[in-house]
Amino acid sequence: MKNKLMLLVISMLALASPIFAQGAEAGNPSDANRRAAAYIAMGLASGLCGLGQGRATASAAEAMARNPGAVAAIRVALILGLVLIESLALYTLVITFIAR
Question: How crowded is residue 74: how many other Cβ atoms within 10 Å of its Cβ?
Fold first, then answer.
């Protein structure tokens, strides 16, 4: 598991490196750095949200299979959890638009 996580982190950093190849604007070089950080944050948030949603869905499916009587309560908790996880990605998307 550690090897897969390290491979994921290294590949995400390698794919994000072309962001730094763009030249900074003449007016304010910190704008390019802010934009690059916002894009990297969006990539990390999206990837980790996808992992979290997958784990939550798998756990909920397993819980429903183990206890069919509690399907309604598990479904409500699953939907609430997925909404909260997805809100992280949406907040990060808003931040990337603000950083432009």
Answer: 19
- Cβ–Cβ under 8 Å, residues 75 and 60: yes
Residue 33 has a pLDDT of: 78
CA distance 34 to 69: 50
The verdict on pTM exceeding 0.90 is: no
Tokens linked to 77: 């908790």
Instruction: Give domain 31-100's CATH superfamily.
Output: F1F0 ATP synthase subunit C (1.20.20.10)
The three state secondary structure string of the chain is CHHHHHHHHHHHHHHHHHHHHCCCCCCCHHHHHHHHHHHHHHHHHHHHHHHHHHHHHHHHHHHHHHCHHHHHHHHHHHHHHHHHHHHHHHHHHHHHHHHC
